[in-house]
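Audit log entry. Action: structure prediction of a protein-small molecule complex. Ligand: glyceraldehyde-3-phosphate. The ligand was supplied as SMILES and no pocket hint was given, so placement is left entirely to the predictor. Protonation state taken as written. Sequence taken verbatim from the request; no trimming, no tag removal. Recorded inputs:
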Amino acid sequence: MSVSPTRNPGTELRPEWFEDVQVNRTAAERRAAAITASRTVKKNYQAAWLLRAIQCIDLTTLAGDDTPGRVRRLCAKARQPVRPDILEALGVDNITTGAVCVYPTMVPHAVKALEGSGIPVASVATGFPSGLTPLPQRLAEITYAVGEGAHEIDIVITREHVLLGNWQALYDEIRAMREACGEAHMKAILATGELGTLTNVYRASMVAMQAGADFIKTSTGKETENATLPVSLTMLRALRDYGELTGHAIGFKPAGGLRTAKDALAWLALMKEELGNRWLQPDLFRIGASSLLGDIERQLEHHVTGRYANAEHHALS
Ligand SMILES: O=C[C@H](O)COP(=O)(O)O
């Protein structure tokens, strides 16, 4: 796919791009399973893929008991996600995670802790995770987070608009959110586990991109069902169709429940198979995760030393 390097400006609402699309769940499940089964990444390649996965992680804390101290520790981990001796053995200079993702009131603490690192701060906003506060308040939350220095905003959509097929209302709210984001890049969380069908997932993805989303993201991490491979495949197909229709490259962020190195490898394989290597870069691919890094570091250590360290050696992940 040939794509424009400029930011997605969105389009008018174009229901004709998605209204007739029907996604077959069985076919999506079969294709997702085939991709992950056919691609076993071996030894050295596996370490390289895991390092790439780290560079694409939005290292996240979204808990009711978050404190500035926890956010600072998370930011320290984002700056140095892998122990220096493991990196040295792999012959790699320090790498960082793709971003740090926090609640709006934690943004100033993250911005300060990441100063000079080049690591962007992402903030959830718009009544995360349910999105059920009045629109002016949801927009004000974006304005607040951007004002505090957030570089990226992860918005949530009103699931009701999807469930009722009210595409204009969905488009209008996401458009307003994109405007409130200004220069900050906007990731649209669809909360796919609450959208009922894969057909709805495809349609909501398309509306979010038409309304100017820079990324489409599966889940908040708080739904009963979070990121799955068939849902991700459906979103990637929408993303590819949008790219072919407009020439704009949209990013993808699976989030919620990704906890193991094996999960990270499965999603990298999906990205590579469906979209190619260009979508294995942090400007177009992020993994939203609060507890994935620990297992990746563990697997890298095993790769280097041939054994697993105790879990407490990988303290915060
Ligand atoms: O956006 C990121 C998610 O909230 C993280 O979910 P998780 O805690 O299941 O990794």
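Audit: result stored. Residues 120 and 287 are 14 Å apart (CA to CA). The chain has one domain: 15-309.
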